[in-house]
# Entry
Amino acid sequence: MLILNEVSKTFNPGTVNAKLALDKLSLHIHKGDFVSIIGANGAGKSTLFNAICGSFFPDHGSVVMDGRDITWMPEHQRAKQIGRLFQDPMRGTAPDMSIEENLALAAGNGGWLSRVSGADKKTFRDKLALLGMGLEDRMKQPVGLLSGGQRQALTLLMATYHIPKLLLLDEHTAALDPGTAEKVLALTRSIVEENKITCLMITHNMQSALDLGNRTLMMNQGQVIYDVTGEERAKLTIHDLTDKFRQASGKALDNDRMLLGIDSNK
Amino acid sequence: MTPDKLLALGQTALELGLVNALTVLALFLSYSMLNVCDLSTDGCFTLGAAVGALVAISGHPWLALPAAMLAGSVSGFITATLQMRMGVQSLLAGIVVNTGLYSLNMALTGNKATLPMNKTTTVFTMAKGLLKDTPFAGQYTLIVMLIAVALVVLFLCFFLRTKLGLAIRATGSNADMVRSSSINPAFTTTVGLCVSNAFTALSGCLMAQQQKNYEVNMGSGMVTVALASLLIGGVIISKHRSVPLRAVGAVIGAFLFRLVYALALRLNMPAFMLKAVSSIIVVLAISGPYLRKQLPLLLKSMGMRKRPASLPEGGR
# Structure
């Protein structure tokens, strides 16, 4: 479904700050996979997403989706098939516009001069009601008034309004309080499973990395150092993961948030 | 001041306010919606006036309007292309185009700084002829301008609710989100600036026809005057209201600005103060909310200095 062939990217090449963010990374994602991705800060997780989305073009290698080489396709064109959520709930919605207007853009029905129809509004209402946040009664309110969790749930709805071929979740619950994060995560799970969306999720929560999805990748220094699915994954615990990390990278996992995640989840 | 004089003053303010209102609506689209401060406004206003004057002098007062709008949108297209596809910063793109337009305007008028239109048939003289025997004979300028402004407001209300209009508003609010909706922000910015500059040029064209005179500096300072009007309108009808209401607010702002200015002239303020007044209004309107936010901080830090040993109440 999605194939990355030896994708490399160096930031600030030729300077003292040169950083090899992706190092000949090859990856094959199957249709319907729900892949969780973990790794220390600076491991290249978000860079991997940027390469898939087209936020930059790779120095080397190619990105192929559904048999089509999209390495040089501009970001906004790929967005037709790729939905993406960021850690920052502010990034996915336009704060000065109403919920309805935001959804209208995500729906993108009709030609340039078409307007939101009554039928569209009905669909928006129904979809918003599924979030269980009461947003269906606030459709005329500007999105800027919503809480972070509500905005993130709305962004999720917008990103999956037309079922994307691929959904990229970049720590999309990390900025939310624990209760809200859980709710958004549950919504994510139900939307992804219901629509059988191929999904990649970066997370710092080791437990949800193992709980959600059917495959887990561990990244370090721009490479995938551990890729696990099936029975082996079913038996994994958080401590196995940290051990694996130490083995593969030759050092301990040095990420506070991940380590804290271990403590809070035992 | 007699009531008669006051009424005449009000009418002049309304007429000039409505002419300016078209530029204010143009900035409403580019500044308030698209979040681009289009500094080519001055030159574009004059460009519209020049093209409009030339076409009207050649005997086509109606044709002058679309001709000016077309010229304006070409200018907007160039500004947008410079900033979206050629890496020129937004403000600089406007300034560069503005400077270039001065030469273009001089070239268009054959190196003449003014074009008198005393004997030219304009849309206003035509309206005057039409309304000759009706009770509205004296109000022909007002009526032409009311129709023009109403049409532009209606167009904006329709346009900003279409998918394209929503995408333009979203570009000003969050360009990332536009990209993830599979829309190219470069495209929406280009369309937005083309439309807004068409209105700016229309405003200049009508101004020249109304004053029966074209002058190469008639647009200078227009961007500040229009911005001041827009911000006054924003005080009356706040940002959280619906888009059609805000567009009407922009028109009211243009009228109020002209009214205050006319009153100030009555009170013997010299005419050259217009631009200083508009500059001050823009500064106050933009810095006001910022300073209001800073004020508690300032007071607190002053309190700190008085009692360095203790923290102010509620301070962290």
Chain A is about 35% helix and 25% strand. Confidence is low (pLDDT under 50) at residues 261-266 of chain A. The domain at 2-88+164-265 of chain A is CATH 3.40.50.300 (Rossmann fold). The longest helix of chain A spans residues 178-195.
